[in-house]
Amino acid sequence: MKNEPGTNDEPGTNDQAVLAVEDLHTEIRTPQGPLKAVDGVSFTVRPGEMFGIVGESGSGKSVLGRTVMGLYTSGPSMTVTGKVVLNGRDVHALSPGERRGLWRSDVGMVFQDPGTALNPVKRIGRHLTEGMRGMSRAAARDRAEELLRLVGIPEPRRRLRQYPHELSGGMRQRVVIAVALAGEPSLLIADEPTTALDVTVQKQILDLLGRLQSELGTAIVLISHNLAVVAGRAGRVAVMYAGRLAELAPAADLFAGPRHPYTEALLASVPRLDDPPHSVLQAIEGAPPNMAAPPPGCRFAPRCRYATSSCETSPALVADGGRAFACHHPVDVGGA
To answer: What pTM does this model have?
Structure first.
């Protein structure tokens, strides 16, 4: 049976979802021709779930996140088709003003570089309070202090008077998370939230996201090129390659037994603590395709060790026992 994730065969139907993405396409117009950055992606996110999206740079992860958010919409430079249903409302059927209202109340976004996400000439307090409507100045300040306390920033009252450059990178990322939480959204999209941070601070930010998920019940979409970031944190993981979903599965199943050759290759390329010193990492041969002129059929086929002539036709996403994968030659779970 063939089915797309997001339909009723996936655990967690659309009726239960805080977010339902259905056959989403984001095509960007370039001098080289139309670039299919997101090409027919479907999935759901349940209330209170941490949902991981992983893939190499250029796989379309960030474009997907911004399209889901409603930051990327149809216009002179791009075309967006499909549906993004957030709390029962189709994001791309809303007016620009209605979408801005969603950003305050239903969805927040954490960008990967807090240095560019925060305005350098605005104090931290201004970043937090400017979206608060119908509150007195004192109430807004108290709420801003509460948000800084929530994300683990000490001396919140003093921090409100500071500018972004006066804070460390980790502190700035916590402020970005606090800003995203100001409207008490039901969904938080975190796009590479730890990329610009050192390893210790990365763990602190990921721990913070996990605590917000468990304490506030916020659904989180965690986007990363690093499988280790989502391992042990996301309940389910979607693997993207060249604008499409290669695989979607519960995290434990995906890491224990990937079905798509791309997922298998990604996992094999991750260094392990029990590897002997100076071990050579297993690289994925070749490079991701040019999305302005993608290869016909399976887009991973030119780099896949299992590829045959049947891969010249695009594989459908096949549902199989709570997971899904798009491959004519899926990896055998038993390792045969």
So the answer is: 0.90
